[in-house]
Design goal:
The protein has about 575 residues and is an alpha+beta fold. About 45% of the residues lie in helices and about 20% in strands.
Length: about 575
């Protein structure tokens, strides 16, 4: 069905574009994965771009869902709000080299669309300026720009858009055509692409995103993108059918003396909270450690991507610059897609694994030690379904037990489980609503049992664990325990506010007493970074003095959002 076209680049256009781009990348994902050979032939560029846009789209949807009625036309958010959400979502969800560059492209557009102190740039001129800023800022973010990559495609799109006269649809179509021409030229710019007989995978992904932009403003997808097959061509009629281009008969054909061969062993990606000056020093240090360096972001939050031999040194450099988190380290030789010349056979799947969402670095370490594959959920940054699917794939098991550990993630986890099942993986979703329920489930995990028996045992353990958290109210609101003010300490039991107090320790004691009034044998305490000193010792003493035969175990959760998590089994 044709898309209803958007007339101006407003918040609704941002939302529509994100949704259509996600759909376009979903159709093209496997194709893009198959043709990726630069900077490394890792076969995941399409997936990384999809996850990056999924995170952007999720952030935009959250702004629409949470926006107060009457704050914009028809109760919708402003263009600035939507554009900033898109850029922020892409930044925190960026995956891989191309995903990180795409995040900067979207950030560059947002810098124009959400410019402060100016009238909203909703017309064709605003779109031209946004595409130009996107291309230029992405090129600046890459330590050593290489022609024949997504950077070339982005620049060509901006150049073509700059010479287009007409409405937003006309500008979008010009950018798309310019990108297609540049993409077709990439094999002539990079020898590794020519030897493989493919165009640049990141550039191909950008073409799909720009095709979605055309559909946003015209209501129709470009004909060359329809049917999941893209034929990109130049103005002189040359074309490259990237779907049929395929991989070389032998991977050595694209490995000899070409980019991506004999390079660093690890890809390191992390989000970083740091000041601009510290990031400038970080760029210099990482540039000396490895290659494929891309640092994107601003306003105190950055996404860092680099290929290195010493992954630890890359992370340590981030620690010196600020606060790194969501750290991902990928060994390029760990999976069969990186193997060369049959040196490593495909890794055999394990029979069973656990995948869990955890709210802090400390719990991530605890879960990992217990054998789980973890997905870190930072405060206000819940993982998307694609990130959970990636974790299931990373677990590399025939059977997977999925622990969302958050009531708000039940639909996201269900969607991820359904997608993984479609890929032939047997997935059981245990509806854990807190990380302490996940700890209880993991404690009885026994992969030697039959799958169904193991799932029943873990579900029973999680269901028998009452959970609570102690946090601080951000704003005045009505609760089950009365009206709370900003700054009040809240004690939530099984998801509902049960106690409103002024002191963290006193509130935690009241919550614990209420939970143990119904009985219990084990209390689990998970301390956040901002929990007051001595609260764990006070609660342990309370349990010893007032509740005989009840044990207490304490974990440090790190930056987990809540000051304290409590579980009672």
């Amino acid at each position: 069905m044709p898309q209803v076209p958007q007339t101006f680049f407003d918040a609704l256009a941002v939302r529509t574009w994100c949704g259509l781009a996600l759909r376009a990348l979903g159709r093209a994902r496997e194709e893009i994965d198959a043709i990726n050979v630069y900077p490394v032939a890792d076969g995941d560029t399409g997936t990384n771009l999809y996850l990056t846009v999924e995170s952007a789209a999720t952030a935009v949807e959250a702004v629409f869902a949470g926006h107060a009625a009457g704050s914009g036309p028809d109760g919708t958010p402003s263009l600035a709000d939507a554009a900033r959400a898109m850029a922020h979502g892409a930044l925190i969800g960026a995956r891989g080299n191309s995903g990180t560059i795409l995040a900067q492209l979207l950030r560059g557009m947002a810098q124009v669309l959400a410019a402060e102190g100016e009238s909203p740039r909703t017309d064709a001129e605003g779109l031209r300026l946004a595409l130009r800023q996107a291309a230029d800022s992405a090129r600046r973010a890459v330590a050593h720009p290489v022609e024949g990559t997504v950077l070339s495609v982005a620049s060509a799109a901006a150049d073509a858009a700059g010479g287009a006269e007409g409405d937003c649809g006309t500008v979008a179509k010009a950018a798309y055509r310019g990108a297609c021409t540049a993409l077709a030229a990439t094999p002539g710019q990079l020898a590794v692409l020519a030897r493989a007989g493919v165009v640049d995978a990141g550039g191909r992904g950008l073409v799909a995103v720009l095709a979605a932009l055309v559909e946003t403003f015209t209501g129709e997808m470009p004909a060359s993108e329809q049917g999941g097959r893209a034929s990109v061509g130049g103005s002189v009629g040359a074309s490259v059918d990237v779907h049929a281009a395929g991989l070389p008969a032998s991977e050595e054909e694209c490995a000899d003396d070409g980019p991506g061969s004999g390079g660093p062993a690890f890809e390191v990606i992390y989000l970083l909270e740091a000041e601009d000056a510290a990031v400038d020093r970080l760029r210099q240090r990482l540039d000396a450690l490895g290659d494929s360096l891309v640092v994107v972001g601003g306003d105190g939050l950055w996404n860092v991507h680099v290929h290195v031999d010493d992954a630890g040194a890359a992370v340590e450099a981030g620690v010196e610059a600020g606060r790194p988190y969501r750290i991902r380290v990928t060994h390029f030789g760990a999976d069969d897609v990186h193997a060369r010349g049959g040196e490593r056979p495909p890794r055999e799947r394990v029979q069973r694994a656990v995948v869990a969402v955890v709210p802090g670095e400390g719990l991530a370490g605890l879960y990992t030690e217990a054998g789980a594959t973890t997905v870190l959920a930072r405060p206000g940054e819940p993982p998307a379904s694609g990130e959970l699917v990636q974790a299931v794939r990373r677990a590399h098991a025939r059977e997977v037990v999925l622990l969302p550990n958050d009531a708000d993630l039940r639909h996201t986890a269900a969607a991820a489980a359904e997608q993984a099942r479609a890929e032939g993986i047997r997935v059981a979703l245990i509806p854990t609503r807190s990380a302490v329920q996940g700890i209880a489930a993991l404690a009885v995990y026994e992969p030697a049992r039959r799958f169904d028996e193991d799932v029943v045992s873990m579900t029973s353990a999680a269901g028998a664990t009452r959970y609570a958290e102690v946090t601080v109210a951000e704003r005045q609101s009505w609760t089950m325990a009365g009206i709370c003010q900003a700054g009040d300490v809240l004690g939530l039991i099984d998801g509902d506010v049960a106690v409103i107090g002024a002191d963290v320790t006193a509130t935690a004691e009241t919550v614990l007493d209420r939970m143990l009034a119904a009985g219990g044998e084990l209390v689990t305490l998970v301390l956040g970074d901002e929990a007051p000193e001595g609260v764990a010792e006070r609660l342990e003493a309370r349990v010893r003095e007032a509740y005989l035969a009840v044990d207490t175990v304490v974990y440090h959760g790190g930056r987990q959002g809540a000051l304290l998590l409590i579980g009672v089994e």
